[in-house]
Design a protein that fits this description.
By secondary structure, this protein is α/β, with parallel strands linked by helices. It folds into two domains: 168 residues, 3-Layer(aba) Sandwich (Rossmann fold), CATH 3.40.50.1970; 180 residues, Dehydroquinate synthase-like, alpha domain. Helix content is 45%, strand content 18%. The strands form three sheets. A seven-stranded mixed β-sheet has the order 1-2-9-6-5-3-4, with helices on both faces. β7 and β8 form a beta hairpin. The radius of gyration is 20 Å and the shape is globular. It binds the ligand O=C(O)C(=O)C[C@@H](O)[C@H](O)[C@H](O)COP(=O)(O)O. Its cofactor is Co(2+); Zn(2+); NAD(+).
């Protein structure tokens, strides 16, 4: 079974990625060792994937919380509901939370685990492509605040990541494509070979060919595990994983959480980040348009919504990467390599947010 380790000294953990893991009772027993488990999932995922876990874990799974689906749930009200359930079911420090679902469930559950009794174990069981290639790995947990995405959160690493690629078969098409945005992100920031490979697999990706998709999961997790191992709490290099996200978080927040899926906003945000990289002279038009063409080929939105420039600037000013001396933005130095820039002029920023890709022929 493909297995990677996120190397973080005493907080190291495995990423198991394979087809059929949720139907492997022995594997689940060995991996989810805590005696009392509380599972969190949502209404879309529960009908498909809750039963196998209930069967495998029996009475050790003391309760399953089924939340309404969507980004609008990622808030303090839902978090409080999770704390009530943890108290009601007497989950102590020897227990664990299980996050069965996409990025919203993973971020919420992880943050509840980070806070509960000052830190309780949790396991990520991602069922969306976005969560399998990105959100479930690295220990970023959070809820949204009305003034900004993920503003209330903590770094809290899971004990394991269990990515059963069979779960992707029940994923709606829009969700699947949103996950592809984060796959493209990994290629653009860290792996030119992956970019070339994705360009050669457009048909398979659009057909959701299981082997191609499974390879995306493994390759992205490998990249992400290496970046996180180098800089767990985003003091430096880890920020490259935020490529396109400063713009994406404006789109998600200003349009109302849930209107744009996170991955869709990331695609439109990466189109702007590619343009900014070109404007700074790091890549040429051909490089910029290559990234945008791949997103278009995979039917991702590349046009950010029309927001007035003050809205962009106000939301961006609350970005977590911003410091007293101003914004820090992620740009490509070249295709397949990214860095953090704190010296982007307001003129370049305003020109970038006003820019949109040319219409397709
Ligand atoms: O893991 C990271 O680091 C990332 O930035 C990955 C992002 O794709 C992910 O969306 C993350 O949750 C965003 O974090 P934030 O710190 O920008 O809220």
């Amino acid at each position: 079974m493909p297995r990677l380790i996120v190397e973080l000294a005493d907080r190291s953990y495995p990423i198991h990625a394979d087809r059929g893991l949720l139907n492997d009772s022995d594997f689940l027993h060995q991996t989810l060792q805590q005696p009392r488990l509380l599972l969190v999932t949502d209404e879309n995922v529960a009908p498909h994937w809750l039963a196998p876990l209930q069967r495998a874990l029996g009475e050790r799974l003391v309760h399953a919380v089924v939340l309404p689906a969507g980004e609008a749930q990622k808030n303090l009200v839902t978090l409080e509901r999770l704390f009530d359930e943890l108290a009601r079911h007497r989950i102590g420090r020897d227990g664990a939370l299980l996050a069965l679902g996409g990025g919203v469930v993973g971020d919420l559950t992880g943050f509840a685990a980070a806070c509960w009794q000052r830190g309780t174990a949790f396991h990520q069981i991602p069922t969306t492509l976005l969560a399998q290639v990105d959100a479930s790995v690295g220990g970023k947990t959070a809820v949204n605040h009305p003034s900004g995405k993920n503003l209330i959160g903590a770094f809290h690493q899971p004990r394991s990541v269990i990515a059963d690629t069979a779960t992707l078969s029940t994923l709606p098409d829009r969700e699947f494509r949103a996950g592809l945005a984060e796959v493209i992100k990994h290629a653009l920031i860290a792996d030119l070979e992956l970019l070339v490979w994705l360009e050669s697999r457009v048909r398979e990706l659009n057909d959701r060919d299981p082997e191609t998709v499974a390879e995306c999961v493994i390759r992205c997790c490998r990249i992400k595990a290496a970046v996180v191992a180098e800089d767990e709490t985003e003091q430096g290099r880890r920020a490259i994983l935020n490529f396109g996200h400063t713009f994406a978080h404006v789109i998600e927040g200003a349009c109302g959480y849930g209107e744009w899926l996170h991955g869709e906003a990331v695609a439109a945000g990466m189109a702007l980040a590619l343009e900014l990289s070109r404007r700074l002279g790091n890549i040429n038009e051909e490089g910029r348009d290559r990234g945008i063409a791949l997103m278009r080929d995979l039917q991702l939105p590349v046009n950010a919504p029309a927001l007035d420039h003050q809205t962009w600037l106000d939301w961006m000013a609350r970005d977590k990467k911003a410091t007293a001396s101003g914004l820090r933005l992620i740009v490509l130095d070249r295709l397949g390599h990214a860095s953090v820039r704190g010296d982007v002029s307001e003129a370049d920023l305003l020109a970038t947010i006003a820019w949109r890709p040319a219409a397709e022929d």
